[in-house]
Amino acid sequence: MQEIKPIIIDCSERLEQAGDTFTQNGHVPLEHYVVGGQEYRLDDGFDYDVALTHTGDGILVTGIVRARAEGKCDRCLDPASFDIAGEVEEYFLFEEPDDEEAREEGFELVGENLTVDLAGPLGDAVVMETPFVLLCKPDCAGLCPVCGCNLNRESCDCAKKAEEAYIQSDENPFAALKNLKLDD
Ligand SMILES: [Zn+2]
Ligand SMILES: [Zn+2]
Fold first, then answer.
1. Domain locations along the chain
2. Of 17, 29, 114, 141, which has the maximum CB count within 10 A?
3. Which CA distances in Å does 43 have to 30, 32, 71, 122, 154?
4. Pair 64, 86: CB distance under 8 Å
5. Which ligand does the CA of 76 lie closest to?
6. Which ligand places an atom closest to the C-alpha of 154?
7. Are 103 and 86 within 8 A, CB to CB?
8. Tens-binned pLDDT, residue by residue, of the chain (184 aa)
9. Angle in degrees, CA 165, 140, 33, rounded to 5
10. CA distance 21 to 2
């Protein structure tokens, strides 16, 4: 992922005691990011809208990220666009947990002067909403595995030729029947 600059939210004036909450929204000018070796471009960064709540033990951040992204179709490699509407949920603790299990699961800490950095949780929410398989359209015909033409726009006779070759080949269990003499 292209590094998102820290998004530091100062909660010191707004979260004075347990139960206090406020909302925060903003725009992050991220241009592109990479997931699983694939690069995705964002039309206009992403927007976020979150609520921050003082729980007594930490600050709970919940909300949503929204973006319009573009990647490559997994079948035909043409550009393919999709909307992102990802859930954000992160719990920043005031102190490191005592509990061994909680420590191993990983945790985020509230920074000095009651600040939290939203860059990680917001970036994760964008990544989580990126489709595992991206298609330019649900019925994309893909590329011909033989000649590489885009079968959405062009046609070729590779599939037909392959079928004919298979009928002639020894791999075809019925090929032997061609030479079978039925007269004895
Ligand atoms: Zn496609
Ligand atoms: Zn072909």
1. 8-128, 141-184
2. 114
3. 9, 9, 11, 17, 29
4. yes
5. 1
6. 2
7. no
8. 557 899 999 999 999 999 999 999 999 999 999 998 899 999 999 999 999 999 999 999 999 999 999 999 999 999 999 999 999 999 999 999 888 888 888 889 999 999 999 999 999 999 999 999 999 999 999 999 999 999 999 999 998 988 888 877 777 777 666 666 666 5
9. 120
10. 31
129 C-alpha to ligand 1 centroid (Å): 19
**3 state SS of 149:** coil
CA–CA separation, 11 and 144 (whole Å): 56
pTM: 0.80
Distance (Å) from CA 158 to ligand 1 centroid: 19
Going from the Cα of 77 to the center of ligand 2, the distance in angstroms, rounded, reads 16
